[in-house]
Design a protein that fits this description.
mainly alpha
């Protein structure tokens, strides 16, 4: 299990590399992990995606 600091570090690095498409990439990774039966890793990818959503800020309307 990743620490909160590790989650936010990975989230920040992914945003820097991929922009906001990184959120979709993390969600795809979570689905792939679930498909392999790795629920714990899927949970970590969802946590990373949630951290990126927080970093993104509120959606503009």
């Amino acid at each position: 299990m990743m620490s909160e600091v590790q989650v936010h570090t990975v989230a920040r690095q992914m945003l820097e590399q991929h922009g906001f498409a990184a959120i979709a990439k993390a969600s795809e990774q979570a689905q792939a992990c679930e498909g392999r039966g790795d629920a714990e890793e899927a949970k970590e990818w969802r946590h990373i995606a949630d951290a990126m959503k927080i970093m993104r800020g509120p959606a503009l309307s």
